[in-house]
Design brief:
Largest sheet: 8 strands, mixed, barrel
Number of helices: 11
Strand order of the largest sheet: 1-2-4-5-6-7-8-9
Helix content: 40-55%
Bound molecules: ligand C2E, magnesium ion
Protein name: GGDEF domain-containing protein
Number of strands: 9
Structural class: alpha/beta
């Protein structure tokens, strides 16, 4: 009896695994044509100045309009694109769309583009960025690049020069999801950046968690002494915004102000 049950369980597992492998291959195959078919879209979510209630930038967020499946979120395809070597093309597409869209913004509003490690460890990453700027006519100081801590770690050796080159022409560098990676503080010493984006996991429970408030305050103090600007991600409530404002956090982003939308200049709600 035990043996029979074991086999049945094994078959269920087997079917499930087979299904998932099939799904994965199917996604990979479809993703290979996505750029050429024009299926990669860029959506935008504003970053606001919490002290002055104005939009300072808008973050470009990739979306895949997959035929017969609808709009696919980056969580479902960016990691796959990185693994199978498609992130270069997708990343360059988003960068180009974002730079073009940003030329319609006011001169003091930037566009912030997510860049994965696989993208910028390539030799020509600097050239890709400069081409996107040249072809769109966007001013370099209207472009921010967001890198995660783990990506920065990979880049310290191979991409440090590229980043210095980009910073020299005015592009600003941000560390995304700050606080979730390893040894966050070492990176700041070895790698010059302009902005920290505090991961939304520290903002979610800000009202209830003294612990999270202490971490955010620590990050703000550190950023202040290193002369870095800070963006708090994932602000959903006026309470969270008020707390961050009171702590002296300059910038914020989240559903409270606007969800990502297809327009680079969405309506922003500065609720009171
Ligand atoms: P991220 O760069 O940290 O972007 C923030 C994510 O949080 C976005 O999800 C955004 O829609 C979501 N978000 C914004 N405000 C709130 C809020 O108030 N509450 C909650 N719960 N979530 C909020 P999205 O668009 O699904 O993107 C997920 C991740 O995919 C991004 O995280 C980024 O790491 C990656 N990604 C997106 N576009 C690109 C891209 O063009 N290139 C690369 N390499 N990665 C990308
Ligand atoms: Mg980001
Ligand atoms: Mg983030
Ligand atoms: Mg994130």
């Amino acid at each position: 009896l035990a043996k029979g049950r074991g086999r049945a369980r094994y078959e269920v597992f087997d079917d499930d695994l087979r299904y998932r492998i099939h799904q994965r291959l199917d996604t990979e195959l479809a993703l290979r044509d996505a750029v050429a078919q024009g299926e990669i879209e860029t959506w935008y979510q504003p970053i606001v100045d919490l002290q002055e209630n104005r939009v300072v930038a808008t973050e470009a967020l990739a979306r895949w309009r997959r035929p017969e499946r609808g709009l696919i979120s980056p969580a479902e395809f960016i990691a796959i694109a990185e693994e199978v070597g498609l992130i270069k093309g997708i990343g360059a597409t988003v960068l180009s769309q974002a730079c073009h869209a940003a030329t319609a913004l006011e001169r003091n509003v930037a566009v912030s583009v997510n860049v994965s490690a696989r993208q910028f460890v390539q030799d020509d990453f600097g050239a890709v960025v400069k081409r996107a700027l040249r072809e769109s006519g966007l001013a370099p100081d209207q472009l921010w690049l967001e890198l995660t801590e783990s990506a920065v770690l990979e880049a310290i050796d191979s991409a440090a020069r590229t980043f210095q080159e980009l910073r020299a022409i005015g592009v600003r560098l941000a560390i995304d999801d700050f606080g979730t990676g390893y040894s966050s503080f070492t990176h700041l010493r070895e790698f010059t950046v302009d902005l920290l984006k505090i991961d939304l996991s520290f903002i979610r429970d800000l009202e209830r968690s003294e612990h999270d408030r202490a971490i955010v305050e620590g990050i703000l103090r550190l950023a202040d002494s290193l002369n870095l600007d800070v963006v708090a991600e994932g602000i959903e409530t006026t309470n969270q915004r008020d707390l961050l404002q009171a702590m002296g956090c300059r910038y914020g982003q989240g559903y409270l102000f606007s969800k990502p939308t297809p327009s680079a200049s969405p309506a922003v709600v500065f609720a009171t």
